[in-house]
Amino acid sequence: PENSMLYMVSVQNDHGHVCGGFLIREDFVLTAAHCDDKNPTSVVLGTHYLHKGVKTAIKQKYKHKAYKEVSKGHDIMLLKLSRRVPLNHRVQIIKLPKLGMNIKENQQCLVAGWGMTKTYGHIENDLRMVDVSVINLDVCKYHWSGLPANVICAGGYGTNKGFCQGDSGGPLVCNGRAVGVVSFNYKMRCDYPDAPNVYTDVSKYLDWINNIIKHTKG
Protein backbone atom coordinates (compact mmCIF):
# COMPACT_ATOMS: atom_id res chain seq x y z
CA PRO A 1 0.00 0.00 0.00
CA GLU A 2 0.99 3.58 -0.71
CA ASN A 3 1.23 4.59 2.95
CA SER A 4 3.67 1.81 3.87
CA MET A 5 7.47 1.57 3.72
CA LEU A 6 7.81 5.35 3.67
CA TYR A 7 11.55 4.98 4.34
CA MET A 8 12.19 3.37 0.92
CA VAL A 9 14.57 5.25 -1.34
CA SER A 10 15.40 4.86 -5.03
CA VAL A 11 19.15 5.44 -5.50
CA GLN A 12 19.66 6.86 -8.99
CA ASN A 13 22.34 7.90 -11.44
CA ASP A 14 21.93 10.17 -14.45
CA HIS A 15 20.07 7.40 -16.30
CA GLY A 16 17.59 6.46 -13.55
CA HIS A 17 17.13 3.82 -10.84
CA VAL A 18 20.17 1.68 -9.96
CA CYS A 19 19.54 0.50 -6.39
CA GLY A 20 17.27 0.61 -3.41
CA GLY A 21 18.13 2.23 -0.10
CA PHE A 22 16.44 3.39 3.07
CA LEU A 23 16.32 6.59 5.09
CA ILE A 24 17.86 6.25 8.57
CA ARG A 25 18.08 9.97 9.36
CA GLU A 26 16.73 13.04 7.57
CA ASP A 27 20.06 13.41 5.74
CA PHE A 28 21.40 9.83 5.58
CA VAL A 29 20.47 6.83 3.44
CA LEU A 30 21.84 3.32 3.96
CA THR A 31 22.44 1.15 0.88
CA ALA A 32 24.89 -1.46 -0.49
CA ALA A 33 28.53 -0.60 -1.27
CA HIS A 34 28.38 -2.33 -4.66
CA CYS A 35 25.76 0.23 -5.74
CA ASP A 36 28.61 2.73 -6.04
CA ASP A 37 29.71 0.88 -9.21
CA LYS A 38 26.79 2.57 -10.99
CA ASN A 39 27.89 6.10 -9.95
CA PRO A 40 24.75 7.19 -8.10
CA THR A 41 24.20 10.95 -7.91
CA SER A 42 20.79 11.38 -6.27
CA VAL A 43 18.00 9.68 -4.35
CA VAL A 44 14.23 9.80 -4.80
CA LEU A 45 12.02 9.65 -1.70
CA GLY A 46 8.37 9.80 -0.84
CA THR A 47 6.89 7.62 -3.55
CA HIS A 48 6.18 4.04 -4.56
CA TYR A 49 6.35 5.10 -8.21
CA LEU A 50 9.73 5.87 -9.76
CA HIS A 51 8.47 8.66 -12.01
CA LYS A 52 7.14 10.59 -9.00
CA GLY A 53 8.76 11.65 -5.74
CA VAL A 54 11.27 14.23 -4.59
CA LYS A 55 14.83 14.06 -5.93
CA THR A 56 17.67 14.99 -3.58
CA ALA A 57 21.35 15.10 -4.51
CA ILE A 58 23.96 12.89 -2.83
CA LYS A 59 26.58 15.08 -1.17
CA GLN A 60 28.99 12.38 0.03
CA LYS A 61 29.34 8.59 -0.20
CA TYR A 62 30.84 6.47 2.58
CA LYS A 63 31.65 2.92 1.51
CA HIS A 64 32.79 0.59 4.27
CA LYS A 65 36.59 0.68 4.19
CA ALA A 66 36.85 -3.14 4.25
CA TYR A 67 34.64 -3.51 1.17
CA LYS A 68 36.46 -4.95 -1.87
CA GLU A 69 33.79 -6.83 -3.82
CA VAL A 70 30.32 -8.22 -3.14
CA SER A 71 31.38 -11.81 -2.47
CA LYS A 72 33.89 -10.69 0.19
CA GLY A 73 31.28 -8.96 2.35
CA HIS A 74 31.11 -5.56 4.09
CA ASP A 75 28.67 -4.59 1.33
CA ILE A 76 27.33 -1.48 3.02
CA MET A 77 27.44 2.24 2.20
CA LEU A 78 26.09 5.44 3.72
CA LEU A 79 24.91 8.29 1.52
CA LYS A 80 24.97 11.80 2.97
CA LEU A 81 22.26 13.88 1.32
CA SER A 82 22.68 17.49 0.25
CA ARG A 83 19.89 18.53 2.62
CA ARG A 84 17.74 17.27 5.45
CA VAL A 85 14.53 15.99 3.91
CA PRO A 86 11.35 16.94 5.79
CA LEU A 87 9.55 14.00 7.37
CA ASN A 88 5.83 13.88 6.58
CA HIS A 89 3.02 11.52 5.57
CA ARG A 90 5.12 10.44 2.53
CA VAL A 91 8.63 10.25 4.02
CA GLN A 92 9.71 8.59 7.27
CA ILE A 93 12.90 7.11 8.68
CA ILE A 94 13.27 3.46 9.70
CA LYS A 95 14.91 2.31 12.91
CA LEU A 96 18.04 0.18 12.83
CA PRO A 97 18.37 -3.00 14.91
CA LYS A 98 19.41 -2.80 18.52
CA LEU A 99 22.83 -4.15 19.44
CA GLY A 100 22.57 -7.88 20.11
CA MET A 101 19.11 -8.12 18.56
CA ASN A 102 18.79 -11.73 17.41
CA ILE A 103 17.11 -12.63 14.16
CA LYS A 104 15.59 -16.08 14.52
CA GLU A 105 15.53 -18.85 11.95
CA ASN A 106 12.22 -18.93 10.01
CA GLN A 107 11.33 -15.45 11.25
CA GLN A 108 9.06 -13.72 8.73
CA CYS A 109 10.53 -10.51 7.38
CA LEU A 110 9.89 -8.20 4.46
CA VAL A 111 12.00 -7.11 1.50
CA ALA A 112 10.99 -4.49 -1.05
CA GLY A 113 12.35 -2.83 -4.14
CA TRP A 114 11.87 -1.67 -7.71
CA GLY A 115 14.03 -4.49 -9.05
CA MET A 116 13.20 -6.94 -11.81
CA THR A 117 10.45 -9.44 -11.08
CA LYS A 118 12.17 -12.10 -13.18
CA THR A 119 15.67 -12.90 -14.42
CA TYR A 120 16.74 -10.47 -17.16
CA GLY A 121 13.44 -8.63 -16.75
CA HIS A 122 13.04 -4.87 -16.53
CA ILE A 123 13.01 -2.48 -13.59
CA GLU A 124 9.54 -2.14 -12.11
CA ASN A 125 8.05 1.35 -11.92
CA ASP A 126 6.05 0.66 -8.77
CA LEU A 127 7.45 -0.67 -5.50
CA ARG A 128 7.02 -4.41 -4.92
CA MET A 129 7.28 -6.07 -1.52
CA VAL A 130 7.51 -9.71 -0.52
CA ASP A 131 7.62 -11.76 2.69
CA VAL A 132 10.75 -13.85 3.19
CA SER A 133 11.84 -16.27 5.92
CA VAL A 134 15.20 -16.06 7.66
CA ILE A 135 17.42 -19.07 6.84
CA ASN A 136 19.77 -20.80 9.27
CA LEU A 137 23.35 -19.60 8.65
CA ASP A 138 24.73 -23.16 8.56
CA VAL A 139 22.25 -24.03 5.80
CA CYS A 140 23.27 -20.85 4.02
CA LYS A 141 26.98 -21.71 4.29
CA TYR A 142 26.27 -25.14 2.83
CA HIS A 143 24.84 -23.49 -0.30
CA TRP A 144 27.38 -20.68 -0.43
CA SER A 145 30.97 -21.82 -0.12
CA GLY A 146 32.98 -18.87 1.12
CA LEU A 147 29.97 -17.03 2.57
CA PRO A 148 31.32 -13.74 3.96
CA ALA A 149 31.02 -12.82 7.64
CA ASN A 150 28.37 -10.45 9.00
CA VAL A 151 25.50 -11.54 6.78
CA ILE A 152 21.88 -12.67 7.13
CA CYS A 153 20.29 -15.14 4.70
CA ALA A 154 16.59 -14.95 3.90
CA GLY A 155 14.42 -16.03 0.98
CA GLY A 156 15.49 -17.43 -2.38
CA TYR A 157 15.80 -21.02 -1.16
CA GLY A 158 13.00 -23.58 -1.09
CA THR A 159 10.62 -20.81 -2.13
CA ASN A 160 9.72 -18.68 -5.12
CA LYS A 161 10.12 -15.51 -3.08
CA GLY A 162 13.21 -13.36 -2.92
CA PHE A 163 14.91 -10.30 -4.36
CA CYS A 164 16.28 -9.62 -7.83
CA GLN A 165 18.67 -7.27 -9.63
CA GLY A 166 17.72 -3.64 -9.00
CA ASP A 167 16.65 -4.41 -5.42
CA SER A 168 20.26 -4.16 -4.15
CA GLY A 169 20.73 -1.81 -1.21
CA GLY A 170 17.13 -2.11 -0.04
CA PRO A 171 16.24 -3.19 3.50
CA LEU A 172 15.39 -6.54 5.03
CA VAL A 173 12.76 -5.46 7.56
CA CYS A 174 12.09 -7.62 10.63
CA ASN A 175 9.83 -6.40 13.45
CA GLY A 176 9.75 -2.93 11.91
CA ARG A 177 13.53 -2.49 11.90
CA ALA A 178 15.98 -2.54 8.97
CA VAL A 179 18.17 -5.49 9.96
CA GLY A 180 19.74 -6.24 6.56
CA VAL A 181 20.87 -4.64 3.29
CA VAL A 182 20.19 -6.53 0.04
CA SER A 183 23.60 -7.75 -1.18
CA PHE A 184 23.66 -10.73 -3.56
CA ASN A 185 21.82 -13.76 -4.90
CA TYR A 186 22.67 -16.73 -7.10
CA LYS A 187 24.40 -15.78 -10.37
CA MET A 188 21.98 -12.89 -10.85
CA ARG A 189 19.17 -15.44 -11.17
CA CYS A 190 15.79 -14.73 -9.63
CA ASP A 191 14.02 -17.98 -10.55
CA TYR A 192 13.84 -19.80 -7.24
CA PRO A 193 14.51 -22.15 -5.53
CA ASP A 194 18.25 -21.81 -6.05
CA ALA A 195 20.34 -20.58 -3.16
CA PRO A 196 19.54 -18.32 -0.21
CA ASN A 197 19.55 -14.57 -0.76
CA VAL A 198 22.30 -12.80 1.18
CA TYR A 199 22.01 -9.54 3.11
CA THR A 200 24.59 -7.47 4.99
CA ASP A 201 23.81 -7.73 8.73
CA VAL A 202 23.26 -4.10 9.80
CA SER A 203 23.65 -4.91 13.52
CA LYS A 204 27.35 -5.68 12.92
CA TYR A 205 27.95 -2.17 11.54
CA LEU A 206 26.13 0.03 14.07
CA ASP A 207 29.35 1.57 15.44
CA TRP A 208 30.56 2.35 11.91
CA ILE A 209 27.21 3.96 11.00
CA ASN A 210 27.00 5.99 14.21
CA ASN A 211 30.61 7.20 13.88
CA ILE A 212 30.09 8.54 10.37
CA ILE A 213 26.81 10.23 11.26
CA LYS A 214 28.33 11.77 14.40
CA HIS A 215 31.45 13.12 12.69
CA THR A 216 29.87 14.43 9.51
CA LYS A 217 29.35 18.17 9.46
CA GLY A 218 26.37 19.86 7.85
Give the SSE map:
Blueprint: E1 8-13, E2 16-25, E3 28-31, E4 42-45, E5 54-63, E6 77-81, E7 108-113, E8 128-135, H1 137-143, E9 151-154, E10 171-174, E11 177-184, E12 198-201, H2 206-215
Antiparallel strand pairs: 1-2, 1-4, 2-3, 3-6, 4-5, 5-6, 7-8, 7-10, 8-9, 9-12, 10-11, 11-12
Protein name: Peptidase S1 domain-containing protein
Organism: Anabas testudineus (Climbing perch)
GO molecular function: serine-type endopeptidase activity
Name some characteristics of this structure.
six-stranded antiparallel β-barrel; 8% helix; Thrombin, subunit H; 218 residues
Summary?
The protein is mostly beta strands and 218 residues long. It has 2 helices and 12 strands, in the order ββββββββαββββα.
Please characterize this protein's 3D structure:
With 218 residues, the protein is mainly β. It has 2 domains: 8-93 and 204-215, Thrombin, subunit H, CATH 2.40.10; 107-203, Trypsin-like serine proteases (Thrombin, subunit H, Beta Barrel). 8% of the residues lie in helices and 33% in strands. It has helices at residues 137-143, 206-215, and strands at residues 8-13, 16-25, 28-31, 42-45, 54-63, 77-81, 108-113, 128-135, 151-154, 171-174, 177-184, 198-201. The strands form 2 sheets. The chain has a 6-stranded antiparallel β-barrel with strand order 1-2-3-6-5-4. The chain has a 6-stranded antiparallel β-barrel with strand order 7-8-9-12-11-10. The longest helix is centred in the last third of the chain and has 10 residues, at 206-215. The mean pLDDT is 86.
